[in-house]
Give the backbone structure.
Amino acid sequence: MVHFNLQAILALAVTVSALPADSPTQYVGPENGNLVIVGGGTLDDSILQRVIDLAGGNDSSIVVIPTAQGDPSYDQNAANAGDFRRLGAKSVTVLHTYDPEVANTEEFVQPLLNATGVWFGGGRQWRLVDAYAGTLTQQTIRAVLDAGGVIGGSSAGASIQGDFLARGDTESNTLIIGDHQQGFAYVKNVAIDQHVLVRNRQFDMLNVLKYKPGILGIAINENTAVHVWKNSAQVFGASYAIIYDGTYWSRDGNDPNQLPDDSGLFYFLREGDEYDLGLRKVIKSS
């Protein structure tokens, strides 16, 4: 089991903050560890089991953060915590505050020091920013990933993993470009949307690409996940993930007679398909 030293986490945070903003990196996703990015809805056990497996199996330590939901308080079954236990995970802890001063304390982050997995529940992603951005909690969660752990999340817990925060508006989640625009950036230069087909959102990401030229858009339907490690993004689950990279891709290899301009292009990936985030191309189709 991984155990983190708080002083080492703080030293790492200072080192990272001193790097230039355009410092080159090898990977779009995490160099160490894994992300499980889920499009919301009712989840099949296979999605949560993937998180458990990547965290180290039933002996792993998973911290569940339900803050996005906005409830006054949470019990120990909140935000899929009960499901993780039902599937055999022996150590599952629900961790929550709305107060960034609390989130910045060593006492609050104690459960994260032994964690091998972190799970963000659904709700409104701006609540995660208001509670945890710039705090010791955010740094310690990142340390879990950098040590080879897994970060997962569904709905709001998916979007927060992106660099640009899709649907971060405090007034309405119908606005894909809102007053909170910075996510936790576990995948760099990427915006992530969720519930995409169920809520007829498939065209919304095009607005983000116009607002932030060069960004990669990923939109995931319900009960569907994208597993990211390094530059690999593999789709699994019941439905589709949509890629917005300004190109066209077809499973059968045929070119259509007519296409919109690059700003209106997107395509669908399904379970077993794999996308290279660095090359921005499909590298495996099922």
Observations:
- The chain is about 20% helix and 20% strand.
- The radius of gyration is 18 Å.
